[in-house]
Task: structure prediction
Amino acid sequence: MSEDGLSVRLDEPLAAHLPLRTGGRCEAWVVAHTIEGLTRVVRECRRAKWPVRLIGAGTRTVARDGAHRGVVLRLGAALGEIRPGERWVVGASCPVPALVSAAEGEARGGLEAHAVVPGSVGASLRLDDGWDELVEAVWAISRDAERELTLEEARRRKLIITKVALRLPLLDSAGRRRLAKARALQRPVPSASVYAVPRKVSVREVLRSSVLERVRLRGIVIPAEAPELLVNIGGGSAADARLLQRSAIDRARRVRGIELRDRVDWIGGR
Ligand SMILES: Cc1cc2nc3c(=O)[nH]c(=O)nc-3n(C[C@H](O)[C@H](O)[C@H](O)COP(=O)(O)OP(=O)(O)OC[C@H]3O[C@@H](n4cnc5c(N)ncnc54)[C@H](O)[C@@H]3O)c2cc1C
Result:
């Protein structure tokens, strides 16, 4: 790690860092352990016109098979601290499940909607519903420094969120029931999806009724238990994942007349 808190690996395989285990090599894999390191990467890459791609836990990102130009950047665990208090200050790299459990441990609620999100707090603030009422302020990298601003502004300007101040209400019995229900829905497998669906439509039900069971394309499988997921059983490629996802979208349209959309961030390669 460099003095200002950066770990850098050149020519790094992205498959080693993303849940679906696909992806070619990126020119530089960078982990920022400090705000100084983070602002330095952003500033110097901008000056060098070198593309920077930020990832969190990667649960909504799939790296394509080819080479990836530029930097792939992750916030290190040191930028994921949870500081409970009147208002909770939480670092963006904190895993959402860790925050939900820490809050529950302090009888704090409001996070039930995120009980099963396996991603990072920073990405979830950017992408997922259900945060607005809890967020008092966010900090993000803007003009080469960490600045306090509103969640709306951080989202609109697609800024790198570094931390958030949350007001968490007391966890009452109704909140505990919601948490338990959200977790129960996870059994036997998580209910995520690589598909965005029209409101009130269960992507699992649509895919179960329109996609053949256990469809497999070389190393990528649509699991029968959770057809909304794509699983790499070994050696699977991003191209195969994309092909399977597209064929599932086609079948749902032809068999059920329902329009599923892609919900994944495909990065790098071509
Ligand atoms: C098994 C499973 C279950 C899931 N369940 C749910 C669910 O119940 N509800 C739900 O809403 N989603 C769910 N998801 C989707 C996903 O987990 C969430 O959207 C989550 O917020 C993504 O977080 P991540 O850190 O993995 O994002 P990544 O895939 O790493 O990144 C996604 C995007 O966020 C950006 N980003 C990452 N970090 C930051 C940051 N600090 N500041 C700004 N932008 C950033 C990246 O640049 C990228 O564009 C699920 C996914 C899986 C695989």
Notes: The pocket of flavin-adenine dinucleotide is lined by residues 54-61, 75, 92, 116-120, 122-124, 126-128, 160-161, 190, 192, 265 (CB under 6 Å). The CA atoms of residues 134 and 167 lie 5 Å apart.
